[in-house]
Task: structure prediction
Amino acid sequence: MTLLSRRRLLQAGTAMVPAVVFGAPSVRASSAPAVEVSGVVPAALAGFDRVLKTYITERDISCAQLAIAKNGKLVLARGYRYSSDGRTVPAVSPTSLFRVASLSKHITATAIMRLVQDGKLTLGASVASLLGLSTAADPRLADVTVWRLLQHTGGWDLALSQDYLYLDHVIADALGVPLPITQDHIIKYASSRPLDFAPGSRYAYSNYGYMLLGRIVAKVSGQSYESYVKQKLLAPVGITRLRLGRTLRAEAAPGEVFYESRYTSKTVTSPASSVVPTPYGGFSMTNRAPGGGWLASAVDLVRFARIFDAAGPVLNATSIGRMFAKPEIGVTASGSWYGAGWWVRQVTGHLNTWHDGSLPGTYTYLARLQNGFTYAALFNRREESGSLDFDVLSPQMNAEIGKVTTWPTTDLSSRYF
Result:
């Protein structure tokens, strides 16, 4: 990943809001804090830019990104940095990398659909059979299928048995192994416990289920999960920056932002009981990889979202339909449902799909809406006790869509890909 190369003006006749161009890797905030931006935004879309600036200043978010696509064209790409207290904040470009948390799930779901499309896997296959999991603790584990993992109906409910991907200390003690634990340890611990409900009977969000999907991708493809995704999903659409993140700040990828949280935790990276900032050692990025471990930029995410607009080099029409298929349990009271890594709702003539992501030090949102509008917003802080509501972002962005009278036609993609 590199910072923005030489910036080019858009074609004549397109009004633009100028950006601050960062000539140094970091800057000291002035006595009158202001949001500094990189990239350019068409004047017609300045309302979205104002939403982001207000959002991050009200929540004291130091690093953020926004990317918007309209009818497959990238029409806005922004990096934002803000310091309210004089801290030095590194520059954020439209191609800086962020942890995207659960926006990783639709990437993993796409990998599964590609394996099915290529005839290497069936959605009705038993996960226990595929991965060699023992069903001794609960025979119902045999009824957990790939479909059910994708749609969070596999039988694990973190509200009842907690999220296994955050139980590093518990699992290490139970198995008598030192930290750090691995995915194998998590699977061994989870497989020794009964499910929380009968597979296929109801919905319960499960990070563990998506960890298992990543294992299936590796097992069936015969290569690592990350390499399969890069080869079969990302390369065909010209995406090169995405990579799996690491746990410690010292392991950050080139161009990756830093993450902020008011909380600390006991480290999960070693047997030492040292206390660390929760985003850096309070949980394992490696173990979360398929369900929450990817690094990406907002422009990468809106480009990847084009895969689902029409048949192409990654997925055919049948596979896209399966991504958004209703689960066996039907739809929610609000008319939405969880497909495969996406929330879905039918609107007139279109399926709106969206997902958010949250980790200590991370909040992300990605949506594909009617009229060809797609956006991704990434932040290096999430809602914590005492902070303002982060969920207002979606309605605020939606409100701006109707205010745009003329959409830009210039595609910014060549700046970043």
